[in-house]
Amino acid sequence: MTVTPEPGIQRASEETKNESMGQLFSELTNDVSTLFRQEVALAKAELSVKAKETGKGAGLLGGAGVAGHVALLAFTAFLIALLSEWMDVWVAALIVTVLWAIVAAILAQKGRSRLKEAGPPVPQQAIDSTKEDVQWAKTQIKSEKR
To answer: Phi, psi at residue 16, to the nearest 5°?
Structure first.
């Protein structure tokens, strides 16, 4: 049994044969350019969303930091007043200062290591999509050369 292609399919393949390599390369270049612009737009949109969320979180953390700082100052005054019942005020203040310096050093070290672990903020979806597009374009160029 012989299968004959439909007339529309046969015409399309004949038209493709008639296109020059220049036309095909031009179309491929336009497609790659469009894909690149779309990937840049995706990266911008993704970074915009991340920046907005980061900004909101940073604002809340800033407010919490101010409130925490005020509470810490009051607690420091309390500790100095409490310790001054058994020793001179300057010794009590020195002890509390050294304790806070130790706490600050520990927190700074932990924060620094967490920042190193987190790595830079990057638009991962856009990067992955661009890699796929580059692979697709390479495949298209190879098939066009045949």
So the answer is: -65, -40
Mind listing the pLDDT tens digit for each residue in 114-143?
Answer: 888 777 777 777 788 888 878 887 787 777
In 3D, which of 106, 125, 102 has the Cα closest to residue 49? 125
Nearest-angstrom CA–CA distance, 23 and 15: 12
The angle subtended at Cα 124 by Cα 44 and Cα 50, nearest 5°, is: 50
Q: For residue 127, give the nearest of 6, 20, 21, 40 by alpha carbon.
A: 40
Residues with Cβ within 8 Å of 129's Cβ and at least 6 positions away in sequence, in order, are 39, 42
The overall pTM is greater than 0.90: no
Q: Which residue has the tokens 């924060």?
A: 111
Using DSSP's 3-state secondary structure scheme, residue 80 falls into helix
* Domain ranges (residues) in the chain: 21-145
Do 133 and 31 contact (CB within 8 A), yes or no? no
C-alpha span between 15 and 85 (Å, rounded): 98
